[in-house]
Structures are given as structure tokens and as C-alpha cells.
Design goal:
Layout lengths: L21 E5 L2 E5 L2 H7 L5 H5 L7 H13 L2 H6 L11 H6 L4 H7 L4 H10 L2 H8 L4 H8 L4 H10 L6 E2 L3 E2 L6 E4 L8 H13 L6 E4 L6 H18 L5 E3 L3 H9 L7 E4 L4 H7 L4 H14 L10 E5 L3 H4 L8 H12 L6 E4 L12 H17 L4 E3 L11 H13 L4 E4 L15 H11 L5 H9 L3 E3 L5 E3 L13 H8 L10 E2 L2 E2 L1 H18 L14 E4 L5 H6 L9 H5 L8 E6 L4 H21 L8 E4 L5 H9 L3 E7 L12 E8 L3 H11 L6 E9 L6 H18 L3 H13 L1
Parallel strand pairs: 5-6, 5-12, 6-7, 8-9, 9-10, 10-11, 17-19, 18-19, 18-20
Antiparallel strand pairs: 1-2, 3-4, 13-14, 15-16, 20-21, 21-22
Helix pairs in contact: 9-17, 9-18, 10-18, 11-12, 11-22, 12-13, 17-18, 18-19, 26-29
Length: 734
């Protein structure tokens, strides 16, 4: 029986306190920390996001001074000092974190963090879980700042037993390592999805979930994709569950239409401003989704757990809405929110954002170990996705080091992205080969229900001494096809297919070399500079952002959201229907290869529908939110930002571009409607995104026409993003 959710207004909260200064003498030096947020940030290892936020310790001695302060804090002190917003309020995420076991807390409240650490290192897993039920995210984050690498692994390993979650399969049992099969495709091509699912299943992946990140987040596409995944699951007979990781509002609409929503997904943030303003989600919406799935979810009669959340250190900082709180603490607050819904899966994707939050391998690896421990400490079924993008200094080798340590720590699952290359999200994650290699190194198995099926298919077999071995069909997706011609057709639908030859549990050398050389070309594209002469024969007005170098642009995204001050002063309202903004973003090559074909189609399409358009702008070193700076200066109705996405996939995918259509809410009535839909009272812009525009995804000529159609719909309905899709769906059903 699932425990009912405690209403928000019944969660006991302390009164917000005035900020307290912390002082300490360490050896012959004195240190002062301006408030609790500062001392918690300074106690962590130095990470890019915390350095930019002014929270990281300036020296190692200062860091140890902060840790000494934290060691001497009592749990009661942290309870009495809730971290507040800039306005001094306790936000909804912090509020949910106070939904703890108060009886257990009363027994431990007088302990200092140092005493708690020692007690936990002596305790068994059951006791550690009991203590975790009485802690807020802030308390767990503070504890984590005191743990070294061995301790993070040692304590998390104790929490593996008893952390299982149940749907069609049981994930997180002792001596198991599961995987989420992620068959992402740049255009959601159903044949391509099918092949990638076959490839994953053949390597023994997918026992936790077959979960797709969609390229197109509309009710029609998500519903069709859910039905397709459900059919593939039935055809293969694989005991698993499916999920399409669209926005939670889209999934709810699909559920209303009868689509098989088995596991409900949403990304979470550790501050209300990030959760609501950027992710378009409120705690009330999450509560509604939970109750809906409990009553009418496709696995309501089967699953004990049915919610799925993704998190990762840094999103709050990246959006500039971290409320002065360090990255590890905001991440722990995410887990305190996730705990409310007793999820089937929580997946951590630290490393996904880029160098503005985690610059290198060391920062990513240690943060992943922190995140895994914090999630397990707060009672969550943690899976891990140590990952990286090509514009960071994180590498495949660093990612693999992270997976080895996290497996030792008892991670419930990793991802299976074919050969580690995500073709839609343009980042690099673990693969089915990695999952199986780790199983063999650490003597682990898939979930028992899935293992039984995989043995029947010859993917695994029992060895003479009772161990699980790779079977004759391991790594061969052809076993799921009716013919060679069908297998060939499926292969032709997926970009960056480097081959299916294997060497033990690893891809064959030829396959690895092909994959790595393509990745190297993609990383090189990050550093290409815009070459205006190659972009188009159409006159563009060039502007610059506050970033004055490629290094500044990559390491501090806030600079790319602002125009150069001198150039900004030269701009005045032009009041066109549309303003086109072109920027390199993270791949100037994407602009060079797509704008010459796309821009003429876009301009002709706008003119053909009597939509006025300002002279297109070319901005060096821009980011997506630069649209708002341009929008406020020129006052168009819509800003179309054509921007190079981060390179990923193969060498061709380094040319992928996206269109971000920013609708500037024009009047009080429209702003009110947008605020009511989003829960963000201060909303000023709504965004629609059209991604993967390049020759291997949405062709640029076709992309120009798609953009025109979306702009017309936005202006007609006076809406964008999820609100526009909701209005279009209502119109379709009327």
C-alpha cells in the first residue's frame, strides 16, 4: 500500500532565521564564512559551478576550516536553519525536504555532523536507512562534505541491500546491476528506435527500463512512440517497462488518451525557481501526476513504484537560480523532493551540462560519488549516468573510472546508449558493453525476471559452476529480426552505426576506433570560430555578446546571454513580428552548414504569410537566452534563435543546429494565461524548440518550413511551448 502524500501545508517547518556568520581558528589562521550557504559550499571540493558562484573555498586550508565548522554543527542547528530564497522565503522544494521521520530525528538531533559520520561508519545498512529517513537534503549534503572517496563508496555499498524497486522487474537487488536502455534517435524514427532497442536487449540491457528521450515533444508523437515501444516490448517478450521521457504534462495528456504510460518521468531541480521557471513544473503538478499514475497508470495493478526522476549537479547554477546554494546541496534537495514519491528509478546525469558546472574528470567523478551516496542516504533507488559533453575536459577514460567506482559503491543501474553515443542529445554515456563488462568484473547479474528471459533467448547461459555467462546470441540484434533484409533496413535508419562486432563483452577494435575518431572530430568542432563569409549571401548585422573569447564562452554561459553593452545601447525597438538571431552556440560548423539552405526558406516563408521580419542578426559566442536580451531591445513578437548545438554522435552530427522560438508575452491576459499554465508568476517568454536540424536529422530546407509553421501557430494562439501544444491538442480533440 502506497503511503498518501502529506499535504504541503501540513509539513512542519521552522521559522526562517537571520543569516548567521561562522568563524573558526584553524592552527594559526582565522576564517569567517558569511552564512550557512557559504560554509557548505566552501566545505566541498572545488568545482567549476561553485567557483563561479563564489561558493568554493579559495584554498585547501580554507576548505578544511569549513569542514571543521560543519563537523561541529548539530543536526538540530541545520534543522533550525532552512536555506531560503533571496527574499528570505522557504520555497516548495525546501518545504518538501522537511517531510521527515520526526521520531527518529528526535533521537539524533543533538549529534554533530562529525559524530553522525562516525556512527554511520560503524552502523549496518538498516540503521543507516533509518537515519536517512530523518534527514533533510541539506543535512545529507553537509554530511557528504565530510566523506572521502572510500567512505562515500563504503556507506553507499551498505545501502544497496533493501533499496530495490518493483514494476515488471525488481531493480536494485543485491548482486545485480541493471540498465536503462536509451534508444534515442535524432528524428524519433520508429525503425531506428527498434534497431537500437534490439541492440540493447541483445547485450542484456533494458531490465530496468526501455526509456526514450524524444526529439519531438508533442502529444501525437509521444503517444505514437509509447504505443510503438509497447509493441516492441510485446514482440520481443522482454520483461521490462517502457517510458518516453517527455515533459510530464505531455505524458499526462497521453495517459488521458489511453497511451501506455507505464513509468512517469520528470527532470527535477533543487530550487523552486529552477523547477518552475525552467522545467515548467510545480510540486502540486508532481503530486497530481503521482495520484494519476496510482489510480490509472498502465502498471497500476503491477508496479509498486512508477515514478522516474532525473537529476544532476549544476542545473540550478546553470540557469542562475541556485539561490546562493552550492551544487551538491541543491542536488541533495532534488533527492529530498524525489523521496516524496517513492520512485521506481532516479538517474543522476552529472556531467551532462558541461564545463560551466564540472570542468574535468576529477570534478565529475567525485560529484557522481557524492550524488550516489546522497540519493541512497535519502532512500532512493539510485542509478548513475556518469557522462560528458565534448565542450568539457571530461573524457571517456574519466567516465569509465567513475563507473568502476560507482559499481563498487552499489549503483542500481547504468544507462545503455549504443556505443555510448547519444544521437539525439549529443552527449556521451555508458553503453550495453560497459554494463556487461562491469557485471563480469564484479560478478553481477541483471534483474532475475529479465535474466530468465535472456537465457531463453540465448543472450545469457548458466556456466558449469552456476555463474551467468554470455550466450551464443549475446550482442547480436539480428536475432530479433525476421530476415536479413529487415535487419539491413533497420540499420539504414540509424546514424552513427559503427558495427556490431564484439570482442568478449567489449566492442571490437575496428568499431571502437571508428567511434573514437568520429568523437575526436566532434570535439574539434567545438573550437571552430564563426566565419561570416560562409554563412549566406543575405546581409546580416553582426553583434557580439559579453564573452570576448572562446574560452570565456565555453566556461561561463551567462556571458553568452548578454549583448555587448556598447552595442546594446545602439539598439532600439523595431516592433517586427519576427527577429532572426543566428549564433555559433557550441558549434560554428552547424551554422556554416545549415544557414545557407535554411535562411532563404525561412525568410521567404515568413514573407509569404505577411509576417514582418527584422534584418537577421549574427551574434558571436551566443547562448539560447540571448533571445531575451535581443527581444527586450528590439521588441519583436517572436525571436527565432538558430544556434549550433553541442557536437555529438558522429562527425556529421557536429553540424547539428536547433531553432529556439522565444515568444514574448504581449499583454496582461496572455501573461496571466501563461503564468497559470506554468505556475511561474513572473514568466515573460515561452519557448518552442525544433532540434537536430542538419542533413542527418531534419534537413535544413525542411527545417525552414517547419519553423514558419510553428511561428504562425504561436502568433495565432498567442502561446508557445507546452501551453501551445496543449491548445493544439484541445483543438484537435474538439
Amino acid at each position: 500500500m502506497m503511503k498518501p502524500l502529506l499535504p504541503l501545508d501540513e509539513i512542519k517547518l521552522p521559522e526562517p532565521q537571520a543569516p548567521q556568520t561562522y568563524r573558526i581558528n584553524l592552527h594559526d589562521r582565522s576564517f569567517t564564512f558569511r552564512d550557512l550557504k557559504h560554509v557548505l559550499g566552501a566545505a566541498d571540493i572545488s568545482k567549476a559551478g561553485d567557483r563561479k558562484a563564489g561558493l568554493a573555498a579559495e584554498t585547501e586550508v580554507m576548505r578544511e576550516a569549513a569542514r571543521a565548522v560543519v563537523s561541529n554543527m548539530t543536526l538540530q542547528h541545520l534543522f533550525d536553519q532552512p536555506l531560503t530564497t533571496a527574499q528570505g522565503h522557504i520555497d516548495s522544494v525546501m518545504r518538501v525536504n522537511y517531510d521527515i521521520d520526526h521520531a527518529v530525528f528526535a533521537d539524533i538531533a543533538s549529534l554533530t555532523l562529525g559524530e553522525l559520520k562516525d556512527d554511520l561508519l560503524r552502523a549496518n545498512g538498516e540503521r543507516i536507512r533509518q537515519v536517512g529517513s530523518a534527514l533533510t537534503g541539506v543535512m545529507v549534503a553537509a554530511l557528504t562534505k565530510l566523506l572521502d572517496t572510500h567512505e562515500l563508496i563504503f556507506l553507499a555499498k551498505k545501502l544497496k541491500r533493501g533499496a530495490a524497486s518493483r514494476a515488471r522487474t525488481v531493480v536494485g537487488l543485491p548482486n545485480t546491476l541493471s540498465s536503462r536502455l536509451q534508444p534515442n534517435h535524432p528524428t524519433d524514427n520508429l525503425s531506428g528506435l527498434t534497431l537500437l532497442i534490439y541492440a540493447g536487449l541483445s547485450t542484456g540491457s533494458g531490465d530496468a527500463l526501455v526509456g526514450l528521450n524524444p526529439a519531438i515533444d508533442t502529444v501525437a508523437n509521444i503517444s505514437a512512440t509509447l504505443h510503438h515501444l509497447d509493441q516492441v516490448r510485446k514482440d520481443t517478450g522482454a520483461p521490462t517497462q517502457i517510458c518516453v521521457l517527455s515533459h510530464i504534462k505531455t505524458q499526462l495528456a497521453c495517459l488521458e488518451e489511453g497511451a501506455p504510460v507505464e513509468i512517469m518521468f520528470q527532470s527535477l531541480a533543487g530550487t523552486e525557481r529552477t523547477l518552475t521557471d525552467e522545467f515548467d513544473v510545480t510540486v502540486e503538478l508532481l503530486d497530481h501526476a503521482y495520484h494519476t499514475m496510482l489510480e490509472r497508470g498502465a502498471l497500476a495493478e503491477v508496479a509498486e513504484n512508477f515514478m522516474y526522476f532525473e537529476t544532476g549537479q549544476g542545473s540550478e547554477f546553470s540557469y542562475g537560480k541556485h539561490e546562493g546554494i552550492d551544487m551538491a546541496t541543491t542536488e541533495a534537495l532534488c533527492y529530498g523532493l524525489a523521496r516524496r514519491y517513492k520512485p521506481f528509478m532516479v538517474n543522476n546525469v552529472t556531467g551532462f551540462i558541461g564545463p560551466e558546472t564540472h570542468l574535468d574528470n576529477h570534478e565529475m567523478i567525485y560529484s557522481c560519488l557524492q550524488d550516489h551516496f546522497m540519493g541512497k542516504m535519502l532512500g532512493l533507488p539510485m542509478g548513475m549516468a556518469p557522462c560528458y559533453t565534448l565542450h568539457s575536459q571530461i573524457t571517456l577514460e574519466g567516465q569509465q573510472m567513475a563507473t568502476e567506482l560507482l559499481t563498487a559503491a552499489g549503483a542500481n543501474f547504468f544507462m545503455d546508449v549504443y556505443l555510448g553515443t547519444d544521437r539525439m542529445l549529443a552527449y556521451f554515456d555508458t553503453s550495453g558493453h560497459d554494463d556487461q563488462t562491469l557485471r563480469e568484473i564484479y560478478d553481477l547479474k541483471p534483474a532475475p525476471e529479465f535474466l530468465e528471459w535472456a537465457i531463453l533467448r540465448g543472450i545469457f547461459e548458466w556456466g558449469a559452476d552456476g555463474e551467468v555467462k554470455r550466450g551464443i546470441n549475446w550482442g547480436n540484434p539480428r536475432i530479433f529480426c525476421q530476415s536479413d533484409s529487415e535487419f539491413q533496413r533497420l540499420q539504414e535508419s540509424v546514424p552513427a552505426i559503427y558495427g556490431f562486432e564484439n570482442a568478449g563483452p567489449r566492442p571490437a577494435n575496428r568499431v571502437s576506433r571508428n567511434m573514437k575518431s568520429n568523437q575526436a572530430i566532434g570535439r574539434e568542432a567545438i573550437y571552430a570560430e564563426l566565419r561570416p563569409a560562409e554563412i549566406s549571401g543575405i546581409a546580416l548585422r553582426e553583434l557580439h555578446t559579453a564573452a570576448i573569447s572562446k574560452n570565456e564562452h565555453l566556461s561561463d554561459p551567462s556571458l553568452g546571454c548578454r549583448l555587448d553593452e556598447a552595442e546594446l545601447l545602439q539598439l532600439s525597438p523595431e516592433l517586427y513580428d519576427v527577429q532572426i538571431l543566428i549564433s555559433d552556440g557550441l558549434s560554428a560548423e552547424a551554422i556554416h552548414h545549415n544557414i545557407p539552405d535554411l535562411l532563404p526558406v525561412l525568410l521567404d516563408g515568413l514573407a509569404g504569410h505577411d509576417l514582418s521580419c527584422g534584418q537577421p542578426i549574427l551574434a558571436h559566442y551566443g547562448r539560447v537566452k540571448l533571445a531575451e536580451a535581443v527581444g527586450e531591445a528590439l521588441r519583436p513578437k517572436v525571436v527565432i534563435t538558430l544556434i549550433g548545438e553541442r557536437p555529438g554522435g558522429d562527425a556529421l552530427a557536429s553540424r547539428s543546429m536547433s531553432a529556439y522560438l522565444a515568444y514574448r508575452l504581449p499583454d496582461a491576459a496572455t501573461q496571466k494565461a501563461a503564468a497559470e499554465f506554468s505556475g511561474n508568476k513572473a514568466i515573460e517568454y515561452e519557448y518552442t524548440v525544433i532540434s537536430n536540424i542538419y542533413s542527418g536529422g531534419l534537413p535544413p530546407i525542411e527545417g525552414g518550413s517547419v519553423i514558419v509553421g510553428k511561428v504562425r501557430a504561436m502568433l495565432h494562439h498567442k502561446a508557445a511551448g507546452n501551453r501551445l501544444e496543449n491548445l493544439l491538442q484541445q483543438k484537435l480533440m474538439a
